[in-house]
Amino acid sequence: MTTRTPLIAGNWKMYKTGPEAVAAAQSLRDLTAGVVDVDVMIAPAFTALAATAGALEGSMIAVGAQNLHWESEGAYTGEISPGMIRTAGCRYVIIGHSERRQLFGETDQTVNRKVKAALSAGLIPILCIGETEAEREAEQTFSVLDKQVRLGLEGVSLQTPGDIVIAYEPVWAIGTGKTATREQAQEAHAFIRELLGKLYGEGMAEVTRILYGGSVKPDNIAALIHMADIDGALVGGASLEPETFARIMRLGE
Ligand code: PGA
Predict the structure, then answer these.
(1) Predicted confidence (pLDDT) per residue in 20-31, tens digit
(2) d(Cα 200, Cα 209) in Å, to the nearest integer?
(3) Among 116, 125, 215, 236, whose Cα sits 20 to 30 Å from the Cα of 13?
(4) Model-level pTM?
(5) How many angstroms is it from 51 CA to the middle of ligand 1?
(6) What pLDDT, on the 0 to 100 scale, is given for residue 134?
(7) pLDDT, position 3
(8) Strands 209-213 and 232-235: what pairing?
(9) Which atom of ligand 1 lies at the shortest distance from residue 217's CA?
């Protein structure tokens, strides 16, 4: 039996202006009444971070960013530093999402720099990993996950439980309506936890949360969360509408 508190995280991607994000956050805040034993996070766009964090102050919902730059400041037009994110009221930051890797050229090396920068700034990185459909068909799922975890965490020392969250998101399941079966997800999660055990010791592996992401909905969260190594979800599309996301926070009840 696990003692890991589930984390339900919403990735709002490039949706919602500041006022729209605040309105959705306020609805979510009302909808969390009675939600216990679950951690909740939403990640709005950069422009909505501070206002959303303000609207959620004192609530159980934490705020995260969807990306960051690894430098603390400098001439990096268009980039946002860990300190800026922290000061905007964020506790978490999503790193290495497959859309960033596929569309914006992120590599395991840039992901690694971002993970280190986030940890130094006191943010909790949600490190995203996952295989493409071609890689799964070529039976490379485990080697891809192995590489993404090892390189993403290279030189990273984890000190306390909860320092980092891993999100397993098979690329073929993101925004496609195709979900990995709970057995496929569990198999990948167990592999990741075993690898964390090799890298950081079993104790740290046991307390590290591994989220599943890819077409999570109110009607599949319960089956997923009951699997031994699935500790929550990173939710895209179904996090945009507060009522729907609230049902996922309630683990499908
Ligand atoms: P989805 O996205 O829930 O819309 O599949 C998940 C994600 O991109 O994190």
Answers:
(1) 999 999 999 999
(2) 14
(3) 116
(4) 0.97
(5) 23
(6) 93
(7) 81
(8) parallel
(9) 3
